[in-house]
Amino acid sequence: MNYETTMSGTMDSGMLDERQSTNRRRLIIALVVVAILAVIGAAYYFMGGSAAPAESAEEKNAQAQTVTVVAPGRETVVRAINATGTLAARREVPVGVVGEGGQVNRVYVDAGDWVRQGQVLVSVDRSVQVQQAAALEAQIGVARADLQLAQNELDRGMQLVGRGFISKADVDRKTATRDAARARVNVANAQLNETRARNARLDIRAPVSGFVLERNVETGQTVSAGSGILFRIAQDGQMELQAQLSENDLVLVSEGVPASVTPVGTDRQFTGTIWQVAPMISEQSRQGIARIALPYDRALRPGGFASVEIKAGSMTAPVLPESAVQTGREGSFVYIVGKDNKVKQRPVKVGDTTAAGLIIASGLDGTERVVLYAGGFLNPDETINPKLLKKK
User: Fold this and answer.
1) Which of 116, 223, 387, 390 is most buried, by CB atoms within 10 Å?
2) Which pTM was predicted?
3) β-strands 258-263, 204-205: how paired?
4) Do 73 and 356 contact (CB within 8 A), yes or no?
């Protein structure tokens, strides 16, 4: 009994000492950790605490991406409208059969020839008409002979009436006979002139001077009033471009505005002026036609296709390259850089396109620093390192 009690008490005392020793070691470790932290904190505060934020700001600026910006200013730019259209004769004159027609004896001109007003284009057989005219001339001779006879009888009657050989009534009848013979002469002359005029119309002549665009008749062909158009002539050789313009562009142009036309298939440019602006808009295409007068040149072929640049006046506004203008849900915008080097979105209204870039109709006064490139990779209020590009 005493042995067991003594052993139990000895074991309890040893365990208690071991537990106390472990707690002391833990306390010492905790104190050491606290002391180390305190030393580090003191060192941070006294030695480097004030310099750390400065280093962080410098690192932040160093990490900001370098972005090219430009101050666009304001430029006087010519407003140009680009369009396409079809080449045509400014005044196209169709030529057909005016008279009764007949068999074609000869065609004197071809497509591509120049003609004068009144020049014979086609001669038509007139053998029958010539005989008719000869018959009428013979009738005129007969009528004139009758007139001369009636006049002689009237003269003799006037001499005899004073002597009482014939009555006054006989003189009146002779006078009427003379007048009727004179009228028959006039009728015969009129018929002859009519026949000659008809014969003259057998020849197809150029109604105007100009350039022959089309020929649709051959020697030996029988032509009549129902034969259709035999020739097409561009009056004075003048050409035009019928440019298709939108409703907005039509408002900007007027008669006398200059334009440069480039036909398809050539790099030549022809200078012309607008001579007519369509008073109506097509309901299907919502476009109208501006007709641009052009001087004759063989490179201008009616029916061909051509592009045109129309000078529609000038304006003063900022001009930016296309890379500076972004497009979002609410329309076009640019990124401008503030004094704090942070970017912000600025909505703009884009005007016409020029060789120098896009005209900014509204939204900028030209003094702002505008992000030139990489706008699609920026976010609003992002800090950047701007690099100003001087405009030439």
Assistant:
1) 223
2) 0.56
3) unpaired
4) no
Dump pLDDT digits (tens) for 288-345.
999 999 988 888 999 999 999 988 767 788 888 888 888 888 888 999 898 888 888 8
What pLDDT, in 10s, does the model give residues 32-64? 666 677 667 655 554 544 444 444 545 555 567
- Answer whether CATH 2.40.30.170 is correct for domain 82-90+238-312: yes
Give residue limits of the domains in the chain: 2-61, 66-78+317-389, 82-90+238-312, 93-205
Q: Whole-angstrom Cα distance, residue 239 to residue 275?
A: 11
Q: Is 66-78+317-389 a CATH 2.40.420.20 domain?
A: yes
Please state, as a whole number, how many other Cβ atoms lie within 10 Å of the Cβ of residue 325: 18
Q: Across-strand partners of 265?
A: none
